[in-house]
Amino acid sequence: MASESSTPVTQQIGRNMEGGSAELCTSLYHPDLELAAGCLLRDRSGRSFQFGDLYRDSKAIIVFVRNFLCYTCKEYVEDLAKIPKSFLEKADVRLIVIGQSSYLHIQQFCSLTGYPHEMYVNTDRDIYTKLGMKKGETSTSSAGSPHVKSNFISGSIKSIWRAIKSPAFDFQGDPAQQGGSVIVGPGNRVHFLHRDMNRYNHVPISSLLRYAGVQTIYFGNKPQILEV
User: Fold this and answer.
1) Rounded to two decimals, what is the model's pTM?
2) Which of 54, 105, 115, 218 has CB 3.0 to 4.6 Å from 81, enough for a Cys bridge?
3) Do the bridges between strand 180-184 and strand 118-121 make them parallel or antiparallel, or are there none, so unpaired?
4) Are 63 and 75 in contact (CB under 8 A)?
């Protein structure tokens, strides 16, 4: 029997996990989200926003990354960048990435990954804390992830090299802080919540899109087989 600490913490609320009913409840309020709503974020220009501003009026897919030097985060965000804006606009869903570094790193990370959607930082990591994001790692297995292309050694070398070349030499976030993902809104309505257990334990992007009602795209490294 697997221990509780080795099990990914995922809550999908108000939607059939087997892909049946997509009907959402009308009172899906999450106490942790309410606590985090007033926490501050900064955009690439350093302007401040409250976390609750991101999902007050529309549904949002919000992805919390570990740090901007993490190679698994970089490769995950590179795949998030492939999502067409038209897919999000059609579903009236915002796609948002939140990091935990200085806002001075946002523009560089967006340029590096080609990410065209919204990105903010929560430098104090109080949103991570209030949403129960994990500190430390339980394992480092990358099995099954369609988004991680580098192995541990090559990925780590690339991360160190980026740190050396960075204009501001720092870790660009707490290396021990894990991320997660949440689908929320409008208002304090949570449809899905996942807390990563380690750097590889992110939710497949196709699943996030499906849970949010956004048209999915294929991220596998093998030719896609379509049933006719």
Assistant:
1) 0.77
2) 115
3) unpaired
4) no
* Helices vs. strands in the chain: H and E counts, helices first: 7, 8
Please give the Cα distance from 61 to 75 (Å, whole number): 18
Do 96 and 208 contact (CB within 8 A), yes or no?
no
Residue 20 backbone class (left: φ over 0; alpha: ψ -120 to 50; beta: rest): alpha
> How far is residue 69's CA from residue 30's CA, in Å, rounded to a whole number?
31
List strand residue ranges (DSSP E) for 83-178, in order.
93-99, 118-121
Rounded to an integer, the average pLDDT of 52-77 is 92
Q: Which of 53-57, 115-119, 137-141 has the lowest mean pLDDT?
A: 137-141
Locate 48 and state its tokens: 């401040």
3-state secondary structure 75-108: HHHHHHCCCCHHHHHHHCEEEEEEECCCHHHHHH
Q: What is the CA radius of gyration of the chain?
A: 17
The whole-number pLDDT of residue 227 equals 41
- Mean pLDDT in residue range 4-17: 42
